[in-house]
């Protein structure tokens, strides 16, 4: 009897003894058996790597491509509420049946090759994308770049959004080595887009050494600036037609990433139209990134770089009092995140996440108290945190952040309602 999707996902967690096992040897063997490496999975492929900003870049690439009439597939991770969120076709989640069929096909050929949860999911996504052959496939790197499972596919353009310290247990703490790892998604003879003004030197050095066909760098080859209220101006690559820049709606997402997405599409040869860009940027919504549900703002920021962006956005929205519901994993820089959010948070609610990697809420509370902050309570889990806020802090603005797990559990609770104001 065929497994349900839920049963398959539980099965995938047991296939390999190490949850995160970077390297392409195992997945490449199975990909070759599936015929994934013998022909392109889509007419064009964009791969997005970086410490922060990958998800928003993918969302804007997809929106603009679809507005210009292209069919799209987007593979991202992790998900918030449903595994199906990881694979979208023209903006719609893939169905259970397609995922189950892909898992069965992979299982039939992998033989004794152990694959991680992420590797199996990546292969399934690639199989489905190859079968449907969209105009554009947009792949988000899971971890790192060069050794990430998505990197078995050659990208027609590679985007590196940012390089900062995160996932130190797997990528280390040498920022230049991390940059070189992320630059591993770039391909010789194909364009590269570097979407950070503080990009570490090893990324551009890797692009030059390949060499890529063009290396487009934010602040040098393309840029953006604020325009009138609620709008921004993209300054296109200088050799492109109409390079003076267009005024576009602010999507509520980092504009470095917006400019990078547009530049990558130009590098692919897409002829952009002002009316279609207006349409695309007016309708972008991304769950868990500065997402508003009533008085709650949810963002998956889990490192200082991302938390600084969140703080800069909240600083533009003064409120009477703001409480942060914070839950983090033990391998993340909690001190750095707390320090980044400190100027825009009045009081804190520390929560304990579930799982072996979780940092106890009391440990977060100790960091906050040591800095002179007020911890309203320490509770077990984000859902309990929302319940506490609904009972004790009904009129405050609330930031929910620190982890995908924190946002996912809080989002599930808020979507159910259950007495929220």
From TrEMBL:
SUPFAM superfamilies, A to Z: MurD-like peptide ligases, catalytic domain (SSF53623), MurD-like peptide ligases, peptide-binding domain (SSF53244)
Pfam families membership: Mur_ligase_C, Mur_ligase_M
EC number from the UniProt entry: 6.3.2.12, 6.3.2.17
Keyword Calcium appears in the UniProt entry: no
Domain Mur ligase central: 48-187
GO molecular function, one term: ATP binding
Catalytic activity line of the entry: (6S)-5,6,7,8-tetrahydrofolyl-(gamma-L-Glu)(n) + L-glutamate + ATP = (6S)-5,6,7,8-tetrahydrofolyl-(gamma-L-Glu)(n+1) + ADP + phosphate + H(+); (6R)-5,10-methylenetetrahydrofolyl-(gamma-L-Glu)(n) + L-glutamate + ATP = (6R)-5,10-methylenetetrahydrofolyl-(gamma-L-Glu)(n+1) + ADP + phosphate + H(+); 10-formyltetrahydrofolyl-(gamma-L-Glu)(n) + L-glutamate + ATP = 10-formyltetrahydrofolyl-(gamma-L-Glu)(n+1) + ADP + phosphate + H(+); 7,8-dihydropteroate + L-glutamate + ATP = 7,8-dihydrofolate + ADP + phosphate + H(+)
UniProt-listed Gene3D superfamilies: Mur ligase, C-terminal domain, Mur-like, catalytic domain
Protein family membership: Belongs to the folylpolyglutamate synthase family.
PANTHER family, alphabetized: DIHYDROFOLATE SYNTHETASE-RELATED (PTHR11136:SF0), FOLYLPOLYGLUTAMATE SYNTHASE-RELATED (PTHR11136)
Annotated protein name in UniProt: Dihydrofolate synthase/folylpolyglutamate synthase
Organism whose genome encodes this protein: Kushneria marisflavi
């Amino acid at each position: 009897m065929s497994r349900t999707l839920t049963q398959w996902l539980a099965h995938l967690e047991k296939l390999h003894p190490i949850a995160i096992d970077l390297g392409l040897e195992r997945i490449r063997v199975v990909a070759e058996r599936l015929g994934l490496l013998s022909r392109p999975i889509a007419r064009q492929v964009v791969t997005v790597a970086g410490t922060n900003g990958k998800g928003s870049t993918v969302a804007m690439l997809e929106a603009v491509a679809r507005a210009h009439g292209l069919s799209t597939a987007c593979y991202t991770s992790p998900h918030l509420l449903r595994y199906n969120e990881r694979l979208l076709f023209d903006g719609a989640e893939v169905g259970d049946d397609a995922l189950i069929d892909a898992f069965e096909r992979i299982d039939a050929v992998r033989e004794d090759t152990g694959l991680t949860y992420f590797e199996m999911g990546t292969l399934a996504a690639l199989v489905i994308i190859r079968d449907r052959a969209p105009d554009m496939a947009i792949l988000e790197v899971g971890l790192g770049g060069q050794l990430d499972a998505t990197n078995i596919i050659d990208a027609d353009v590679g985007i590196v959004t940012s390089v900062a310290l995160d996932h130190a247990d797997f990528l280390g703490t040498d920022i230049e080595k991390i940059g070189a790892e992320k630059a591993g998604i770039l391909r010789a003879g194909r364009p590269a887009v570097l979407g950070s003004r503080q990009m570490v030197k090893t990324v551009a050095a890797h692009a030059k050494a390949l060499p890529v066909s063009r290396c487009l760098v934010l602040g040098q080859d393309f840029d953006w600036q604020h325009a009138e209220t609620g709008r921004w101006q993209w300054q296109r690559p200088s050799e492109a037609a109409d390079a003076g820049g267009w005024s576009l709606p602010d999507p509520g997402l980092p504009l470095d990433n917006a400019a990078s997405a547009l530049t990558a599409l130009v590098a692919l040869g897409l002829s952009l139209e002002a009316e279609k860009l207006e349409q695309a940027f007016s309708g972008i919504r991304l769950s868990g990134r500065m997402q508003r549900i009533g008085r709650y703002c949810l963002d998956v920021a889990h490192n200082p770089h991302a938390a600084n962006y969140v703080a800069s956005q909240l600083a533009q929205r003064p409120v009477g009092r703001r409480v942060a519901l914070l839950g983090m994993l033990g391998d993340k820089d909690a001190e750095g995140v707390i320090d980044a959010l400190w100027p825009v948070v009045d009081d804190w609610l520390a929560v304990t996440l579930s799982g072996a990697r979780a940092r106890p809420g009391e440990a977060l509370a100790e960091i906050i108290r040591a800095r002179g902050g007020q911890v309203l309570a320490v509770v077990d889990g984000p859902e309990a945190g929302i319940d506490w806020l609904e009972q004790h802090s009904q009129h405050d603005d609330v930031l929910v952040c620190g982890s995908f797990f924190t946002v996912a559990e809080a989002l599930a609770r808020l979507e159910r309602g259950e007495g929220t104001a």
